[in-house]
Amino acid sequence: MTAAPQAAAVAQTGLLRHLVMVLGDQLDEQSSAFDGFDPALDAVWMAEVAEESTHVWSAKQRITVFLSAMRHFAESLRARGWTVYYTHLDDSANRGTLAAELQSAIDVLAPAALVMTAPGDWRVLQSLRAVAKASGRPLDMRDDRNFFSTVREFAAHAEGRKQLRLEYWYRELRTKNGILMEGGKPVGGQWNFDADNRESFGAAGPGALPPRSFFAPDAITQDVMALVNSRFASHPGRLDSFGWPVTRAQALLALDTFIAERLPLFGKFEDAMWQGEVWLYHAHLASAMNLKLLGAREVVQAAEDAYRAGLAPLAAVEGFIRQILGWREFIRGVYWTKMPEYGAVNALDAQAALPGFYWTGETDMACLRDALTQTLNHGYAHHIQRLMVTGLYALLLGVKPQEVHAWYLSVYVDAVEWVELPNVLGMSQFADGGMLASKPYAATGKYIQRMSNHCKGCRFDPAESVGDKACPFTTLYWDFLMRHEERLAKNPRMALQVKNIARLSLEKRAGIIAQALSHHAVVNPPVSS
To answer: Final residue of a domain: which of 306, 338, 370?
Structure first.
């Protein structure tokens, strides 16, 4: 454990009032945990531990963005004259878990009390609470002000509802916070502008695209990269392209760049994909927001200001704001009101293993290969690649949802469990049976063909469900509908899709089932005894 001389003096005199715990996703100098902080009486505790990179097989980009941002943040606090007790991953006495490191800090420093902002991971919360209780220290848990709402407010909204729907929560928050509102009504006369968004690029492709906001690794980040490449050499991914924002200043610059260069076309092309194009018109701000280098309010305000100034169309701005003010807040509420039981949901009884190519990108399916390769190279894929390529394939294949969840938590730089788990289990895999999403997001390869150019260079044909050229997405789509026909027929939003099964001859159905079984055997071959 490293500490400034003044911290050692505080510990020796027994005057440490508060040990303020700061986790890797709480890097906000205006955090509620710092309310009332007195440098003469209080100190900050931070720890890098192996468990946070190994409880799921975290990819190198994800590990690096967390560790680098943590180290930069600790330096910014020290620059203010604050005492920071910081355990590095490669410290010889590192005990490997947050719980063990916190207990060690309590034993050495003997703080009168512990203070922290509520964490973003149910597992971490339980672990740290247990340490506080065992050590007899009061734990002051404070609200995270980086959100528009509290978990208590969402719980009140959700009480008595059998199903939870984004739209009602989104309208409630927009009205309460006066965002894109005029005279108590939504700007433009409607709440949702999806009809004006979500186009494909067409045959001509996206054309010239604005460059990614890239931040060259400084000495701190380079040290982290070397450590990650050494300590986690067997973990997935690579660091050649690492350039994510890891400081507050970098995050603000990334926000300004998105507003100026990408937001105007964000809505129109938010669902579009194009072979080899990673960044497109998306914001790439989720990791900075989930680290708390950016607050949700300032991001939403910047987008609304762009609309008010005539710099971005309403449809693009509303679509972007809905992802933050609406979906992000909604998902957080679901997570904290439904855990831990929510983590075990599996309404469709999916039991297949996650195919090994999710960790390598080595597959003949062009859309999957592109999404997986860029994920492993950059720690990033946009929401349609996640929902309607990697997620759709896992849903149709019938992969156990907890395996899908572990993969998403492992590979993306913006993955913190409160936002990742319900997105994957509820929206992507329909594992909660419809509590969060009104229908499974099931589609054939035709959807991917419509929204991208992937199919043009693929050996599979999205129009075919059987035969050598059959697209696995299309085969598995029909197999999925047939396997779950009874359940899905009761869902009003799936009724038309299920009725289409009746158009298939018995011979065609048998062929699809056989093709699906053959595909399963290829991607998940039986393990020989």
So the answer is: 338
